[in-house]
Amino acid sequence: MTQPVTISIAATGRKITVPTGLFINNEFVPSVDSKETIQCINPATEEVICSVVAGSEKDIDAAVAAARKAFKTTWGKNVTGWERSRLINKLADLIERDAQELAELETLNNGKPVKIARDFDIGDSVQCLRYYAGFADKIVGQSIEIDNKTKTAFTRHDPIGVCGQIIPWNYPINMWSWKVAPALACGCTIVMKPSEITPLTALKLSELVVEAGFPPGVVNTVPSLGSVGGAALSAHMDVDKVAFTGSTVTGRRIMEAAAKSNLKKVSLELGGKSPHIVFESADLDQAANWTGLGILYNTGQDCTAGSRLFVQDTIYDKFINILVEKFKQLKVTNGFDEEAGAGPVVSKMQYDKIFSYIEAGKQQGAKAVLGGEKRPGKGYFVDPTIFVDVKPDMKIVRDEIFGPVLAVAKFSTEEEAIELANDTSYGLGAGLHSNDASQCMRVSQALEAGTVWVNQYNLLSNNVPFGGKKQSGIGRELGSYALEEYTSVKAVHWNYGEKLDWPL
Ligand code: NAP
Ligand code: MG
Question: Which residue among 192, 242, 247 is best mutated to probe the pocket of ligand 1, counting the most ligand atoms within 8 A of its Cβ?
């Protein structure tokens, strides 16, 4: 079963041909030993879109072998930075050319609105590829003085080698680009494992890898179950690095597998329970808009979701009224609806998980002032939900829900706000709104997070590093920092004058 399928999109009349095999050595191939398939579901209708091959452990071996061969022959240290740059730029151009088609496929499988998939996820992905294409011929080491008359040393930033990349379902194209772009720029080769829930766009992007002209084996894509393909990649003896975005539980497993196998380098971008603070001096209308973006963007399926909101007591009631009105304005509907601001959540499992948290919130005495009820009919739609007067030990305050569910609490002093904000095992994002510049500086310094937003929330930029503190992750993506994740520093000591006397 490696024949491509043609999918018809009713809303736009478009027909999209999607490969269904494993992408190894620039070809779509069947599994070497497995008959398993992955069924892809449209979360807006609960209908089956198609099935793709589910790769096995042996398929991961084949993909790693292809990636190793390419690394040793056509890629790695065998290709100039200019050539890598040219190919990455070409790939960016092709994604830009196909943006509408890719966006529709993303919407079909993930649920997010087409315009958001196209203009944000894909727009950002194209920019990300171009940003790292620019770095490909600018990866430089240091020249280090040892002794001016006899010795010098220099460093080379070598590509780390074969990289396993395991990506989640919330931003399938975007996370693909964040991982692929810096790896290729540095000269690494890739075995990509997309989420079993959303494998279609990674397969479609693989076609563009061929069209762009990358040599076989540089990028390989193996859709498979996490416990099979993801586990095999993390434990593989010939994988030099694994980059992961997803849950903290899975991240821990990956790190353990890396430690127990070949001590491969690991970068982890994990979950969060990010705090968002509104001080009394803030522009409340703006703060409410950013709060909405923080928790409702991507239907709350966002690792940086600002899911714990702390509002100063002097403006608490007023701000909640503004927030409720704002949240009601968001249209949560089928992503093919032109007016959709958010789509369904990605799967039945996520839908059930979110509602189990909503139930827990109600049972533990939090008050829902908006949402919190199931809709009738098909599709995994969850309406914006606001719980107020939450307590620090409630499940909806402690756990990552990964849905449009906001937990709001009151504070009176700046110290108290900081204390509450940092009371979590996570440290991915944090936000604050205030018109007092000194307060903004004090609080942004005190918040324990990899990213702090001041008078905004959730916006990232390809040239600014992103990653977590505490149990939100290890390593950084984006910016020049990401290059460190894909390079290995070699020091060369060079003697041109010292004679060694012997015996010692
Ligand atoms: P997950 O297990 O962390 O999935 C992320 C990726 O890891 C997927 O490609 C998954 O493959 C793979 N994976 C699963 N088990 C693995 C293993 N043992 N070894 C290596 N890779 C493995 O997340 P999930 O179960 O889909 O979602 C659960 C929760 O994780 C969400 O509710 C949310 O809280 C969090 N999450 C966070 C992010 C984020 O951006 N930080 C993204 C997604 C989910 P399969 O999909 O094939 O299982
Ligand atoms: Mg899973």
Answer: 247
Alpha carbon distance 203, 431 (integer Å):
36
Residues near ligand 1 (Cβ within 6 A) = 166-170, 193, 195-197, 225-227, 230-231, 234, 245-247, 250, 253-254, 269-271, 303, 350, 353, 400, 402
Query: Dihedrals φ, ψ of 417, to 5°?
Result: -60, -45
Residue 124 maps to which CATH number? 3.40.605.10
In sequence order, the 6+-apart residues with CB closer than 8 A to the CB of 168 are: 175, 195, 245, 246
What pTM did the predictor assign?
0.98
- Dihedral angle sign, alpha carbons of residues 474, 479, 485, 488: negative
- The CATH number assigned to the domain holding 280 equals 3.40.309.10
Alpha carbons 151 and 495: distance in angstroms, whole number: 5
244 and 339, same structural domain? no
Write out the chain's pLDDT in tens, 504 residues. Answer: 579 999 999 999 999 999 999 999 999 999 999 999 999 999 999 999 999 999 999 999 999 999 999 999 999 999 999 999 999 999 999 999 999 999 999 999 999 999 999 999 999 999 999 999 999 999 999 999 999 999 999 999 999 999 999 999 999 999 999 999 999 999 999 999 999 999 999 999 999 999 999 999 999 999 999 999 999 999 999 999 999 999 999 999 999 999 999 999 999 999 999 999 999 999 999 999 999 999 999 999 999 999 999 999 999 999 999 999 999 999 999 999 999 999 999 999 999 999 999 999 999 999 999 999 999 999 999 999 999 999 999 999 999 999 999 999 999 999 999 999 999 999 999 999 999 999 999 999 999 999 999 999 999 999 999 999 999 999 999 999 999 999 999 999 999 999 999 999
Alpha-carbon gap, residue 102 to 96, rounded angstroms: 9
The domain total for the chain is 2
